[in-house]
Design brief:
The chain has 8 helices and 13 strands. By secondary structure, the protein is an alpha/beta fold. β2 and β3 form a beta hairpin. The chain is globular.
């Protein structure tokens, strides 16, 4: 496989969770049993890193802000997660597209995979499947697509039967789609396109990464979808979703 680098963007202000008082990326999402029989919680960011490790990623850039330094203390150099970590500082939150583009100098010649550190998706190997599809098909961008009952809050994807993406929406008020992209992988061609957006006009101001995914189609890049129709996707970045997730977590607590 071509060199693959992970990107874990964790520089957001989490305005939807106020007055939540610690990074949402550190919310426990499941429990794992250690060799000595003890049970250890796994936080959301660790879940994403574990999925990257399963996809063959050995290095990952974590984008953080001043108010997220607790993530650095918790994750450290990544040795516990089995993925070598480096941290990139973003002083002002300007959105997901900006956080990803901030990594440009470090990933411009590599294949990139993206998992959001405040989401939980199933199947667990979805990111690995998406990364394999990127390389096998020699595509420019591959999106892992999951079913959802709330596409208006997320990023629905319209694709043909053979997996070619024809449209990526961003929090549409009305749509017939009942899915959302949740993980992604791309080639240097998409990284270059993102940089072009960043350097043109008003830059990435007001642009979502979903809008740029759709722009990749308009610019003639090969954009593909890998559907996981029996899968699931939970965004922990909203209070509604977090409230719905915590009772399930509590039910399996020791």
């Amino acid at each position: 496989m071509e060199r693959l680098i992970g990107v874990l963007p964790a520089a957001g202000a989490a305005t939807r969770l106020r007055p939540f008082r610690y990074p949402k990326e550190l919310v426990p999402v499941c429990f794992t049993e250690l060799e000595d029989g003890r049970v250890q919680p796994m936080v959301a960011a660790e879940y994403s890193l574990a999925a990257m490790r399963a996809a063959g990623v050995s290095r990952c850039l974590v984008v953080i802000a001043d108010w997220k330094t607790e993530i650095v203390r918790y994750l450290g150099d990544g040795s516990d997660a089995g993925v070598e970590l480096a941290y990139l500082h973003r002083a002002v939150p300007r959105g997901l597209a900006d956080a990803i583009d901030a990594c440009h100098s470090w990933v411009q010649d590599s294949h990139v995979c993206l998992a959001l550190p405040d989401t939980i998706f199933q199947p667990f190997d979805a990111l690995a499947v998406v990364c394999d599809a990127l390389v096998d098909r020699r595509s420019d961008l591959v999106l892992g697509v999951f079913p959802t009952e709330h596409p208006e809050d997320l990023g629905p994807v319209r694709a043909t039967d053979d997996g070619r993406v024809v449209e990526v929406l961003e929090k549409p008020e009305i749509t017939d789609l009942r899915n959302t992209w949740g993980v992604a992988a791309w080639s240097p061609r998409f990284t270059a396109l993102l940089r072009r957006y960043a350097l043109t006009g008003s830059g990435l101001e007001g642009l979502s990464i979903g809008t740029i995914f759709n722009g990749a189609i308009e610019h003639g890049l090969d954009v593909r979808a890998v559907p996981f129709p029996m899968g699931s996707y939970v965004d922990l970045g909203s209070m509604k979703n977090l409230q719905g997730f915590i009772p399930a977590l509590a039910s399996i607590a020791p």
